[in-house]
């Protein structure tokens, strides 16, 4: 297989010794720029999401598993089998996910956990809470507080456009909602975690502001149902399942450690790999680099342009080489993107064969991807256009939601 | 939240009900209560808390001397003579929100007891048993360390002040029940629903999972509407998680609020109708399998429909939310009075 140098990247000898770093604020790959997910699993101590678990999900929900599950994009978990046991026995659970509203520019990578969460909500018919950590962004990025609150609402529109069920979904901004039962749980959690522990988990130092040091409890708290009395009353027996990217694992390791000490159930997790940047799998996409990602506001011609010009190709350097050796699917970004967004398993498999063998050219696979992404993004834009301020208000209202 | 003794006393005072208050050590039986009160009156009321086989709950308040045959009462309520029993103790605290030994007709003041039927002994109004000349009866104000003495008229007024129309019943009657003589108290039972906390643990319902360091989970204060319960119960049944019949899901409850708001089944319906109309009667599955419609185009159409219906649903939900808010604000402002 052709081993092309990543465009614009230089792999230096020193980098071979480079360790991969994954934490909630930065992700970087190892020597070859790639993330070793198996190593990450081991390092973090979560479990691999095996095929039989996927089959079990299909059986219990009575519908095909989401492509993200079938194709190992959501690849790791903690206690997922317990959640499935609960579901079978009729013990209720809810979903919890979130977003740090740092900018208005969401890209496809941001949508992935929400698309998956929507599938989980529909398949299991469960309530969902979505936390917008505007406080976090103000603490870390020094974002103006009112701007952070505004961004929460703007991001909420994109989230709502993913198709969540208004009657079972509560979206909240930390700045608006923290208080009452939620705050009481934050304090219970904070009491159980020392400065040493957060330093160990998150790498805080003496120079970090006290808001940062205390913040992990704010992201941990929504794992506990009694934070949401309008949804669950004072119940503590409702389990929580958290779909998130694997870099959020540290927050929830801490949460799971604290849970039994404060009389709560441990939240379960279902974790995804990172969505590759257009330039290749060397880390997370960046909202500030417009050519690193497909953004939800992109026009069809922008999408076409970005895929054609910037999507890293694993194809041969020349047509002849490509026909002879085939494409390196392991590094090809259009192939990886299709793995995310093509629903038809058979079609994906065919493309894999044709492109991998060299019969299909880079231009053709890119064309395939452009069609899929254009449809997806355009539908999202139209859905978002229909999310009015009233709709946002309704999703964010602390209203009685008898959901279980 | 449950009312306290002071809350209920204040409520009654505000409503202009007159009564005397007697404090005493806790009393768990009528006998103990009689002995604890000055003059050892025989007009202390006894209270039974009953639950029928349909999980409906009843407070039966009677003179201590009135003989109550639960089987006869049960038949009169329309659930057959073995259809009613003393409610399990935990329901006293979870449904009536009073401690054990404190069952009282005044417990209907608690919102959690909204579905509990209150049956009062007609003999309370009978002057042979309670003197017309200032004769009083005794009830607990939600705790068994106090008794309130009220005239029967005041008791009836108190019940009204708590939002209920008092129903007095001849508890010793044993009417014949047959084809021509339906159970006489059935209408009282049928207007009510089981209080949520009285329902058995069933499909879709909470099962208290013991956490190692935790106390028992607190009961949910808000009654869950039937509709919202029906949908999860049905989904879980599909997943073969049946734990016996769920009393909340009746065979007739096919259409519920939750089922009407489900997008996927509507998308299926629409696609079927579209295929039929546009492809000359073709079935949905045939359209792609026969190659008449490209599979990707069909998938895109489906996704489009889901998106549009979900947007419509959210817009409708938001409009309902605005209307609901408006109703509350208008009520507070007395705008439409």
Automatic annotation (TrEMBL), chain A:
Q: Which domain of life is it from?
A: Eukaryota
Task: Identify the SUPFAM superfamilies for this entry.
Answer: Nucleotidylyl transferase
Q: Does ATP-binding show up as a keyword for this record?
A: yes
Please tell me which top-level EC class this enzyme sits in. ligase
| Entry EC no(s) | 6.1.1.2
Protein's UniProt keywords contain ATP-binding: yes
Which one of the record's GO molecular function terms can you name? ATP binding
GO annotation, cellular component aspect: cytoplasm
One Pfam family in the UniProt entry? tRNA-synt_1b
Q: Which residues constitute the signal peptide according to the record?
A: none
Which controlled-vocabulary keywords does the entry list?
Aminoacyl-tRNA synthetase, ATP-binding, Cytoplasm, Ligase, Nucleotide-binding, Protein biosynthesis
User: Which InterPro entries is this protein grouped with?
Assistant: aa-tRNA-synth_I_CS (IPR001412), aa-tRNA-synth_Ic (IPR002305), Rossmann-like_a/b/a_fold (IPR014729), Trp-tRNA-ligase (IPR002306)
- Provide the GO biological process annotations: post-embryonic development; reproductive structure development; tryptophanyl-tRNA aminoacylation
Q: Where in the cell is it found?
A: Cytoplasm
Q: Which family does it belong to?
A: Belongs to the class-I aminoacyl-tRNA synthetase family.
Q: What is this protein called?
A: Tryptophan--tRNA ligase, cytoplasmic
Q: What is the lineage of its organism?
A: Eukaryota, Viridiplantae, Chlorophyta, core chlorophytes, Chlorophyceae
Automatic annotation (TrEMBL), chain B:
Recorded hits in InterPro entries, A to Z, give:
ProX/PRXD1, YbaK/aa-tRNA-synt-asso_dom_sf, YbaK/aa-tRNA-synth-assoc-dom
Q: What is this protein called?
A: YbaK/aminoacyl-tRNA synthetase-associated domain-containing protein
Q: Which family does it belong to?
A: Belongs to the PRORSD1 family.
Extract one GO molecular function annotation from the record: aminoacyl-tRNA deacylase activity
Species per Swiss-Prot/TrEMBL record: Volvox africanus
Q: Disordered: where is this region?
A: 174-249
Mark out the compositionally biased spans (Basic and acidic residues). 234-246
* Matching SUPFAM superfamilies: YbaK/ProRS associated domain
Traced from the root, the source organism's taxonomic lineage reads: Eukaryota, Viridiplantae, Chlorophyta, core chlorophytes, Chlorophyceae
> Membrane-spanning regions, if any?
none
Q: Which residues form the YbaK/aminoacyl-tRNA synthetase-associated domain?
A: 24-155
- Return the Gene3D superfamilies for the record: YbaK/aminoacyl-tRNA synthetase-associated domain
* Regions of compositional bias (Low complexity) in chain numbering: 199-217
């Amino acid at each position: 297989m052709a081993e092309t140098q990543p465009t614009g990247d230089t792999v230096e000898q020193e980098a071979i010794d480079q360790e991969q770093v994954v934490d909630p604020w930065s992700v970087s790959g190892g020597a070859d720029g790639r993330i070793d997910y198996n190593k990450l699993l081991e390092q973090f101590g979560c479990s691999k999401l095996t095929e039989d678990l996927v089959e079990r999900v299909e059986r219990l929900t009575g519908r095909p598993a989401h492509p993200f599950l079938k194709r190992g994009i959501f690849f790791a978990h903690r206690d997922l089998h317990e959640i499935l046991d609960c579901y079978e026995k009729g013990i209720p659970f809810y979903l919890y996910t979130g977003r740090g509203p740092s900018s208005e520019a969401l890209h496809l990578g941001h949508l992935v956990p929400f698309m998956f969460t929507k599938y989980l909500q529909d398949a299991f018919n469960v309530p969902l809470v979505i936390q917008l950590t505007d406080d976090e962004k103000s603490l870390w990025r020094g974002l103006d507080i009112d701007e952070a609150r505004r961004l929460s609402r703007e991001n909420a529109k994109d989230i709502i456009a993913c198709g969540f069920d208004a009657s079972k979904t509560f979206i909240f901004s930390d700045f608006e909602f923290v208080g009452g039962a939620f705050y009481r749980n934050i304090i219970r959690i904070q009491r159980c975690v020392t400065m040493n522990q957060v330093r160990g988990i998150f790498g805080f130092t003496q120079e970090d502001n006290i808001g940062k040091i205390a913040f992990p409890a704010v992201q941990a708290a929504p794992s506990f149902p009694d934070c949401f009395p309008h949804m669950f009353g004072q119940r503590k027996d409702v389990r929580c399942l958290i779909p998130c990217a694997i870099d959020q694992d540290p927050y929830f390791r801490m949460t799971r450690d604290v849970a039994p000490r404060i009389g709560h159930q441990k939240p379960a997790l279902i974790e995804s790999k990172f969505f590759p940047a257009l330039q290749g799998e060397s880390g997370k996409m960046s909202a500030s680099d417009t050519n690193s990602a497909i953004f939800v506001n992109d026009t069809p011609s922008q999408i076409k342009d970005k895929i054609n010009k910037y999507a890293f190709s694993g194809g041969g350097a020349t047509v002849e080489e490509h026909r002879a050796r085939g494409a390196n699917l392991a590094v090809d970004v259009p192939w990886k993107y299709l793995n995310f967004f093509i629903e038809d398993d058979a079609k994906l498999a065919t493309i894999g064969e044709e492109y991998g063998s060299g019969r299909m050219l880079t231009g053709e696979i890119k064309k395939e991807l452009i069609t899929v992404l254009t449809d997806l993004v355009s539908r999202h834009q139209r859905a978002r256009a229909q999310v009015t301020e009233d709709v946002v208000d309704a999703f964010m209202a602390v209203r009685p939601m008898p959901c279980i | 939240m449950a009312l306290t003794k002071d809350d209920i006393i204040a409520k009654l005072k505000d409503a202009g009900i007159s009564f005397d208050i007697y404090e005493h050590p806790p009393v768990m039986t009528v006998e103990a209560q009689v002995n604890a009160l000055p003059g050892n009156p025989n007009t202390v009321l006894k209270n039974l808390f009953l639950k029928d086989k349909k999980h409906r709950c009843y407070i039966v308040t009677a003179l201590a001397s009135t003989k109550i045959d639960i089987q006869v009462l049960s038949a009169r309520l329309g659930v057959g003579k073995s259809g009613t029993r003393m409610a399990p103790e935990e329901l006293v605290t979870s449904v009536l929100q009073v401690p054990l030994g404190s069952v009282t007709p005044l417990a209907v003041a608690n919102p959690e007891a909204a579905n509990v039927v209150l049956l009062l002994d007609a003999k309370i109004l009978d002057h042979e048993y309670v003197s017309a000349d200032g004769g009083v009866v005794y009830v607990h104000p939600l705790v068994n360390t106090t008794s309130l003495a009220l005239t029967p008229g005041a008791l009836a007024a108190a019940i009204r002040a708590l939002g209920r129309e008092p129903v007095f019943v001849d508890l010793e009657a044993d009417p014949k029940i047959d084809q021509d003589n339906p159970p006489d108290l059935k209408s009282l039972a049928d207007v009510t629903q089981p209080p949520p906390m009285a329902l058995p643990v069933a499909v879709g319902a909470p099962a208290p999972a013991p956490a190692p360091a935790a106390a028992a989970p607190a009961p949910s204060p808000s009654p869950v509407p039937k509709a919202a319960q029906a949908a999860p119960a049905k989904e879980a049944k599909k997943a073969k998680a049946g734990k016996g019949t769920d009393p909340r899901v009746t065979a007739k409850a096919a259409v519920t609020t939750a089922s009407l708001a489900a997008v996927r089944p509507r998308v299926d319906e629409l696609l079927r109708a579209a295929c039929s109309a546009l492809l000359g009667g073709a079935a949905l599955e045939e359209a792609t399998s026969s190659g008449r419609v490209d599979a990707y185009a069909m998938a895109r159409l489906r996704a489009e429909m889901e998106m549009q219906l979900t947007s419509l649903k959210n817009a409708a939900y938001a409009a309902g939310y605005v209307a609901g808010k408006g109703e509350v604000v208008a009520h507070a402002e007395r705008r439409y009075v």
